[in-house]
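Pilot study result, target chain (382 residues):
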Amino acid sequence: MKDLTNKNGVFDVHTEDVMVPEWKRGLESLKMLRPRLKQLSILGIGLSVPTDGKITAEVIVVSSFEELESIDNAIIKGKIILFNTNFTTYENTIQYRRNSAVKAARKGAVAVLVRSITPISLYTTHTGDLVYEPHVKKIPAAAITIEDADFLQRIHNRGEVIVIEIQMSNELKANISRNLIIDVKGYDIPDKMVIVSGHIDSWDVGQGAIDDGGGMMISWFVPVVLNYLKLKPRRTLRAILWTSEEVGLNGAKAYLERHSDELDNIDFIMESDEGTFKPLGLEVAGSKNVTCLINEILQLFKPWDLNRLKVANSTGSDISIFIDKGIPGASLLNKDDRYFWYHHSNADTLTAQNKSDVLDCAAFWAAISYLIAELPVDIRRS
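Predicted structure:
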């Protein structure tokens, strides 16, 4: 991306090294042995430990953490737990991907399966990250399709014993990655910054086209198009392509630590990480003053129906840790109702993108960030 930036005539670009966890998927298989033979689709959850060979065990199906807790530990011990939890919202349902391994291990389970975190499926498995705790045994965790989760649920409801064989290999090590930073220096108050961003990493399945190829590219596009149009804003407009968002916001955390003395100079921070479908406006987190100011700017985009404003306490993924520090920010608001159809799955390819929508997002992202950076008044945090 640095070379591509230079090829497009932008040379105020550099990278910053970040030490990140590198998790590599190996062989994965899941087979039902009882009540009949059937091969099932599986996708290991990122950062999961391997099975160290094969695990063969009975499956207990539950729909919630509460149901799991209601079962005696002696019944759970040595079993594999399947969490078959219907998708409501991502924020509510993601806990079953992130926390199920710890919850099941505390009860004595040897592995955990999770219904893929998606509202709809054409036999797709969806990965993501998980969390282990220091004093709880780490057990393997994997996602299965909605179809297979419901299939196993039906067998379980009939009172039949389900036995499966699971095998997962993977490797986890530390490695060096990089954040990419591109600046268009401000002509008046260059020490002040407006930041646009997206994350450059993705999961190993699919192509990462919507998570977060689109958001990353429209943020990269901002300094490139401003340079092409020979436009310089009042404040510095900085584009950051974060690394290692998927496994713990590591790129953003490293930037926050490395640039801690510059935080007071960030007037506004933006991120696109929930799709680049038809753009609608911005989701804004900040004081009432900031929200009113951004709303006024958005009215300039009313002829294109791009003036919608959604108020939130926090927004974005990487930028959420900056907002926690009191820096106002915004995420791209877009028609993302299909986002989780593709999210973290083999379906996340360029086919999921609409070129016209992505170009509209890029144009809006460049225009709105330039206008914010060009504001003649201070952007007051409170």
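One observation from the pilot: The longest helix spans residues 209-228. A full batch analysis is planned for the follow-on phase.
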